[in-house]
Amino acid sequence: MKNTIQQPAKDFENIEFGDKRLNKRLEKSIEKYTKNAxxxxxxxxxxxxxxxxxxxxxxxxxxxxxxxxxxxxxxTIARMDGTVLLIEDTTDVNLNGHKNxxxxxxxxxxxxxxxxxxxxxxxxxxxxxxxxxxx
Length: 135
Prior knowledge:
By secondary structure, the protein is an alpha+beta fold. It is 39% helix and 25% strand. The longest helix is centred in the N-terminal third of the chain and has 16 residues, at 20-35. The chain starts with 7 loop residues before the first helix and ends with a strand.
């Protein structure tokens, strides 16, 4: 892994959703969520209008999670150098209590929700996180 760990916003600085407002909203959101990772969306944004703008970005047809995940993956791979440990985890997000949510599948036999597969890349030499390798 290269000796420089970039700020998360740099990973996405050239991402293009075909709308300058979406690109700018993503940049602002990443900066806020990086500084306030322990907070909710509303807490990170600081007010309801910021949270609403974030949710509008997510629901915009030009915005895709696949494009975001692909950019995160590319940025992580670009930082990998030397021995890199890929540490993975699988978890179920249990949404059984969300009775009014439509379209949920089963993440396991009796759990309605989603299965999350996460993987982080860690430099064995630097003991530093490179980023998300798989989303």
